[in-house]
Amino acid sequence: MSSICFYFQVHQPYRIKKFRHVNIGSGEDYFGEKDDQQLNNEWILNKVALKSYLPANALWLELLNRHPKLKISYSISGIALEQFIKYAPEVIKSFQKLVDTGRVEILSETYYHSLSFLYSRDEFVRQIEKHRNLIETTLGISPSIFRNTELIYNNDIAHIVSRLGYSGMLMEGADAVLGWRSPNFVYEAEHEKDLKLLLKNYKLSDDIAFRFSSPDWNERPLTAEKFAQWLNQINGNGEIVNLFMDYETFGEHQWESTGIFNFLNKLPEELLKHPDNDFVTPSEAIEKYNAVGRLDVPDYVSWADVDRDLSAWQENAMQQDALRALFELEGMANESNDKKIIEDWRKMTTSDHFYYMCTKWFSDGDVHAYFNPYESPYDAYRYFMNALTDLKLRLSSQTAHAQSARIR
Amino acid sequence: MLGWEYPPFNSGGLGIACQGLATALAKQGTEIIFVLPRRFPVASKYFRFRFASVGTPLKSGYTTWRGKSDPNYTGELFRQVRQYAQTITNILETEDFDLIHAHDWLTYPAGIRAKEFSGKKLVTHVHATEFDRGGGHVNQMIYEEEKNGLQKADQVMAVSNYTRQLVIKHYGVPEGKVRVLHNGINPEEFITTQTFSTGLNSLKKAGYKIVLFAGRLTLQKGPEYFLYAAKEVLRDSPKTIFVMAGDGEMLGQMMNLTASLKMSNNVIFPGFLRGKELSDAFAQSDLLVMPSVSEPFGIVPLEAMAYGTPVIVSKQSGVSEVVSHVFKVDFWDIDEMAEQILSILKYKALKETMSLNGKRQSLSCSWDKTARQCLSYYQSL
Q1: Is A14 on the interface with B (CB under 8 A)?
Q2: Packing angle between helix A260-272 and helix A54-66, nearest 10 degrees?
Q3: d(CA A330, CA A179)
Q4: A196 lies in the same domain as A280
Q5: Residues A319, A246 share a domain
Q6: ipTM of the complex
Q7: Residue A229's domain spans which residues?
Q8: Fewer CB atoms inside 10 A, N or C side of chain B?
Q9: A129 is catalytic
């Protein structure tokens, strides 16, 4: 028996505008740029909604109606949801319809798709809470499975997540962790016997997410039939195949013209042709299968790049400096009791800002360059730091106000 | 290979580029006979020189020359260019070669002569066009010489795609005939020393930041944009010194501009720097700005990067095609240039990251790489 678990990540950051050095102290808004499409958050959200979220949701709804056994799962970052509410409410409605089928599970994550756990456990927990609240109020769901930003995982994160009451968590099926072991089973966390782990089958997932339309891939064109054959080979050697990917794969990373929607349209029926295949949501998976082993993960793993570690966000001096400077303000920001300040600060914790500063692959112009709305990682850093310096000024003037008020 | 000048008897980048390419080609097994119009006391470990005539060379090189300002000079220059095309016959009669490679318009008539004489193929190499040098004013006579050379050539090499586009657009050369051959540097030359000769050290110790401009003070190099940006930077960061290293006909104008912008205390004019003085200035500056209005390539930023110095290059330059670990700016966008300067001065982590990656990147832009590419172009002929 082999169960297939689909999981899609839905996320859009609040991109920081080209915040100029001369504007530090002006207190102007940090996020989005009207005149520059690449940084116009509303424009981007609507573009991706039209190319990806809306057609993909419509197709999955149709597939769910066509195949009563089909099940899928999502996590939607809080700031993506927030932007849907503001700019594209029809996207929320389409997610609601999916949830109403009863066969779509929504997972928990940090509201700001942040790297907060690396610097502040308190902030990490606060952002998870905030996300839970929004998911409950907008979609009426109370998640029981957690997925961390970019599938970042180690023993410490497992410990917190388990204490928060989650029964399962997603992670990357990284070779560095698994060694000879297969990602196609359920595992449990080393020190948390109540936390089960679902591991991404990165080979099969990335065949769809990254290689589907790659010109130098010799398996192109990938048909649903061929993909189902590859997946069926796991039968007998595994219990579950976890296909985890960015939801933007459908229509945005892989454009409609690549045939991705046609592929998807046929996929469930091809998978169901094998009598031993079925579909599960993450929470069903951990109910259904026992853990075959424990995973001891002292070092961080993620699903980013070939390195599958933290280097996409934390490698160079700019990234480290920006993160350090940001979290230095955590206490002041949270104690400010100024809603706008707290929100601005939190929006800056989103992992994307640090990803844009990555210089690892900048010379070769690959995926980082493609997903970077700024001309260079150096620009990403300077606009972030200019905005952060402005935030710092707001905080110190606010503190000065508070002090003078107390004296009076 | 036909040249016009050769280090240390060079007035600008042409001689340096010829030296870099010829040396790397020779090291990779190509036999080079490097021809100069007149006798200079120059030598190379890797190839022979031949001199077309024995007279004394022109004192100042052509690159410092402004066509409109000195008509006598133009006449003399053209006389020498034509003379080169005649005296080269002496060499053609006594040498055996397979290919003629002529650098910039000054050598094109001689190159065409060599082609006619020997029946061998001619490559003309564009290091700059009249559209870069002229700053809007194009000398028709020079333009005609350039055009003639480019059209008679069997292949044209341009130092950048930027230049390639100019050649196609303004000289009517078919696209298929023009190849891009980027300039390079010699990575082994960039070893940072600990002892510095310039006075910049004491300024740094006093807490000043140093921003460097290194190039001829001519319209083409955009020196005035550097000064206007400096003014913006000083509003925010008064403890900054702007060094304008170079000579040229705009020197007086730039000094006047500095005075009228009321920043004479923050701008230094050390003149034309060479050798250790120049490398020390590179190594000690916090960053280098190349605000060229039209720059066919621009080796200077690569040199600064090789010393670990962050750079800002104008988008109107060839070098901006080969480097990514830099800031790029339109030469006229003074506000943005000032923003970029400030961010390098203010944010240590940015400077550190750009320095590290920039150094690595520039050292990979070697003449050896250029020569390999050049050989593959030769072979396609």
Answers
A1: no
A2: 20
A3: 38
A4: yes
A5: no
A6: 0.90
A7: 2-295
A8: C
A9: no
